[in-house]
Amino acid sequence: MSINRREFLKFAGLTIAGVGLSATNPFFRNSTEAIQVSPMPEALKAKRWAMVIDIRKFKTEDDYKRVIEACHSIHNVPNFGNPKDEIKWIWTEDYEHAFPGQENPYLPESLKHKPFILLCNHCENPPCVRVCPTKATFKRPDGIVMQDMHRCIGCRFCMAACPYGARSFNYRNPRPFIKEPNPEYPSRMIGVVEKCTFCTERLDKGLMPACVEKSNGAMIFGDLSDPNSEVRKVLSQHYSIRRKQELGTQPGVFYIIGGDENAG
Amino acid sequence: MYDGGKIIFGIIIFLAIVTFPFYSNIGKAVTKPDPKLDTPEIKKLTEKKCVESKEFMRAEHMKLLNQWRDSVVRERNRIYTSSEGRLYQMSLQNTCMKCHSNKKKFCDECHKYADVNPYCWDCHLQPKESES
Q1: Residue A230 structural domain
Q2: Strand pairing of A49-54 and A253-256?
Q3: Interface test with A, best of B58, B75, B76, B97 (most A CBs within 10 A)
Q4: For the domain that residue A68 is a member of, what is the CATH number?
Q5: Residue B17 near residue B87, CB atoms below 8 Å
Q6: Kind and range of the H or E element at A204?
Q7: Interface check A135 vs B, CB under 8 A
Q8: Is the residue at A31 inside a domain?
């Protein structure tokens, strides 16, 4: 039996109508498409997060240790006990290495050997973001340079691009080297790069970054775009420096050095 | 047929290798996956409901988790509104596994059966399970 032209057209029309209907019918659609999400209501918001580190207020060794330990313990940062494999989100370095090109032989002795707290600068023009081939590292609208560990392929371009050495690579499986894992936060795996995130998970809960909370006022965190924020107030009252400003990355971490009060 | 003996011998060896998975598994019953929902945390719940319906979660949990992941890490949205209008924090470690604290019996049971190896647990910490 052959179909005539009229029957063929009827059938073809019905088929097209059927396909059209099924595309709009929710039954056929991937039902996760209509996913409804929202930010946490208590999340802290800003246009440009930034940090001021008042190095004058770091006096004893314990001041540094407390801050570093606060960060590394909640973020499951491993301790390999070996500087070659070291993973660091926040660490210390002396003036000469933190601010190369700004050293001179006549600096106060106390400043020359004083450790400076260093961390990711969350640059305005982050070179690490430019080079990342998978967009695993990206800049959020609030200025935080964030890492998506799910996308990191471990190419280490970002480590080469970062002028501040803020990024660490997991050459080994970090799991066995995490002393007391924090069950609320993931660890990383072998072959990914990690760094400070300005505690995005804490900001979303309405909390300040862990280091800021534990610093007893030596570290100040806030919105650089808000003239009434604490960081802006502190910056307008003190002379501050940033690391390798000449590179044009516009770091978001400022240092208040101070003068004589460093002595002793 | 030239070299008939060699060819037939070759074909027999070929068939023996190709069919090896079939005859080596004859008579071996594969146990059906039996995921368990009987964690102490779930037993305590008065209303035993997951984020979405059982059928949806069974079919789409991997897509849902992927979307949760991107939305939390990349878009800063951490709250999920379910189709019933309830709110959840989107977190594998802090939401899913708080109820489903039996990773071995809940996740691995089916994943092993289906031979899928999601890499969630390379980074995410699994809940401590009591060996029982």
Answers
A1: 49-262
A2: parallel
A3: B76
A4: 3.30.70.20
A5: no
A6: helix A200-204
A7: no
A8: no
Give the span between the Cα atoms of A255 and A116, in whole angstroms.
9
Which of the residue ranges A14-23, A120-129, B87-96 would you say has the lowest mean pLDDT? A14-23
Strand A145-147 and strand A137-139: pairing? Answer: antiparallel
Question: Which residue in this structure is represented by tokens 């200025």?
Answer: A143
State pTM to two decimals.
0.81
Q: Check: CB of residue A138 under 8 Å from CB of residue A152.
A: no
Element (H, E) at A138: strand A137-139
A32: nearest CB among B60, B81, B123: B60
Q: pLDDT means per 10 residues in chain B (132 residues)?
A: 91 95 84 87 88 92 94 93 91 93 92 92 86 47
pLDDT, position A23: 65
Contacting residues of A for B75, CB less than 8 Å apart: 37
**All structural domains of chain B with their residue ranges:** 35-123
Q: How many domains are there within chain A?
A: 1
Q: Residue A24 and residue A191: Cα distance in Å, rounded?
A: 43
